[in-house]
Amino acid sequence: MASTAETPNSAETAAEPTFSLALTQDQKDIRDWVHGFAEGVVRPAAHEWDEREETPWPIIQEAAKIGLYGWESMQQFAGDPSGLTLPIVQEELFWGDAGIGMAIMGTGLAAAAIAGQGSWEQLMEWVPRCYGTAEEPKVAAFCASEPNAGSDVSNIRTTARYDATSDTWTVNGQKAWATNGGIADIHVVIAQTDKELGSRGHAAFIVPIDTPGIEQGAKVKKHGLRASHTADVHLDDCRIPGAYLLGGKEKLDERLARVREGKRGKSQAAMQTFEATRPIVGAQALGIARAAYEYALDYAKEREQFGRKIIENQSIAFALANMKMEIDAARLLVWRASWMARNGVPFQDAEGSMSKLKAGEVAVWATERAIQILGGNGYTREFPVERWHRDSKIYTIFEGTSEMQQLVIARAISGLRIA
Ligand SMILES: Cc1cc2nc3c(=O)[nH]c(=O)nc-3n(C[C@H](O)[C@H](O)[C@H](O)COP(=O)(O)OP(=O)(O)OC[C@H]3O[C@@H](n4cnc5c(N)ncnc54)[C@H](O)[C@@H]3O)c2cc1C
Questions:
Q1: Which atom of ligand 1 is nearest to 220's Cα?
Q2: CB neighbourhood size of 318 (10 A)
């Protein structure tokens, strides 16, 4: 036991953020409320919207009506000091269905970019507009990826040129695979402001849908997450006011000047957004994995072959035991990273990437195991596990592929520029 002299004084102790796995009553109530919506509204509609491959506006409207979709609720979920409420909400909703879940939560990526890079005034102006109102909900899109800039975000070719006389920016380029691209009211667009500076010259801009020159390109037909709209976005001489640059011109000029002097600038605009949202994306993957595990467990306790329940075979029981263990392990990584992000504890060992990597891989693996446990039924569209498997695969690809997460972790732990 430390002597009194060695014990930190109470002021220092109070400043240290603490982590607890014990959920507050409020968190439990929110979890149960979201679960009720996922079970009663989302899951029964999942098959239909997966087949239709359309944005489920009626369900977004219903979520908005009960206060699950909207600026105020997102503020409440993200504002919880433990950092656990938002991943809990995501896990429950995506347990219901990932395609519909993404149609509801996809706006969060644009909102996170505005919150992370915009001024307080910009946040107050634009984030509520991303969500619209309970009567007329809207969605928003975050547009970083391009046909030749996926993992390699530094290769972004979309440009933003400033005209000081009119205080306007002109944005030109083509964005790829944007969730809600073209149907969003607000597009947050990552563009190059100075080609010489590579990714250090990137900045984030608000491009509202009524800006002349912005339009949806091809809508992407996908393997999974099919109720979530994904499309290219074309930006052709889009002129926007100077105030639509997130963070403002003064801050951008200061940052670019530092980079030109050879000083280290902050990381890329797109990367900053992804770092903050990775645990949240991990929580979505967890929801899919848990849905598959629970379904497979129930099925294995019912299905009989050779005169006994299939769960009475160790190979099936052990698979389920491992699924439960891996899902719980992934959740601990997600909750840790989410707590760290909310409490300003730096991701020194790329804990955000660890959480997303683990949860994404577990989701793909667990949903595949679930298909195996259901046998032929697992492979048909009459049962939901094949959809969950299709949905899960995106979690090893978007917001940084599994390989890119490993790269980030490897660089963080080694301090080396591993290629
Ligand atoms: C459904 C969906 C929704 C999306 N939503 C959005 C969105 O809202 N906004 C947005 O900006 N983008 C979005 N994306 C794009 C997504 O982020 C990219 O697809 C992803 O970053 C991967 O880029 P890529 O597809 O170009 O793959 P590539 O970068 O071409 O990678 C191909 C393969 O090569 C590997 N690889 C590449 N470089 C390396 C390396 N250095 N070391 C080891 N392996 C490497 C990758 O891991 C991968 O396996 C979405 C994509 C999809 C499919």
A1: 1
A2: 10
- List 230's β-bridge partners, or say none: 179
Q: How far is CA 126 from CA 123, 187, 336, 378, 391, in A?
A: 5, 10, 29, 44, 30
- The verdict on the CB of residue 394 being under 6 Å from ligand 1 is yes
Give the whole-angstrom CA distance, residue 40 versus residue 35: 8
Write the pLDDT tens digit of every residue in 198-236.
889 999 999 999 999 999 999 999 999 999 999 999 999
Length of the chain measured in residues: 419
**Angle at alpha carbon of residue 42, lines to 38 and 43, rounded to 5°:** 90
Residue with tokens 């219903």: 62
Residue 179 CB–ligand 1 contact under 6 Å: yes
Tokens 């005169």 correspond to: 307
Amino acid at 220: V
Q: Specify the pTM.
A: 0.95
Question: Which of these, 211, 217, 65, 229, lies nearest to 131 by C-alpha position?
Answer: 65
Query: To the nearest whole percent, how much of the chain has pLDDT over 90?
Result: 89
Cα–Cα distance between 359 and 389 in angstroms, integer? 14
Closest atom of ligand 1 to CA, residue 175: 11
Asked if the model's pLDDT at residue 273 lies above 80, the reply is: no
What is the DSSP code (8-state) at residue 384?
A: T
Rounded Cα distance, 248 and 145, in Å:
23
CB 94 within 8 A of CB 31: no
Beta bridge partners of 168: 163, 241
What does the alpha-carbon distance between residue 21 and residue 363 come to, in Å, rounded to a whole number? 22
Does residue 395 line the site of ligand 1, with CB under 6 A?
no
Counting beta carbons within 10 angstroms of the beta carbon of residue 249, is it exposed (0 to 12), middle (13 to 18) or buried (19 or more)? Answer: middle
To the query of whether residue 146 is one of the catalytic residues in this protein, the response is no
Pairing outcome for strands 159-163 and 168-179: antiparallel
Q: State the Cα angle at 248 between 113 and 208, rounded to 5°.
A: 55
Cα torsion for 376, 378, 381, 384, to the nearest 10°? 160
For tokens 């667009």, what's the residue?
A: 189
| Whether pLDDT at 10 is above 90 | no
Q: How far is CA 350 from the centre of its chain?
A: 16
Would you give the DSSP letter of residue 137? B
Within 10 A of 97 (CB to CB), how many other CB atoms are there?
A: 32
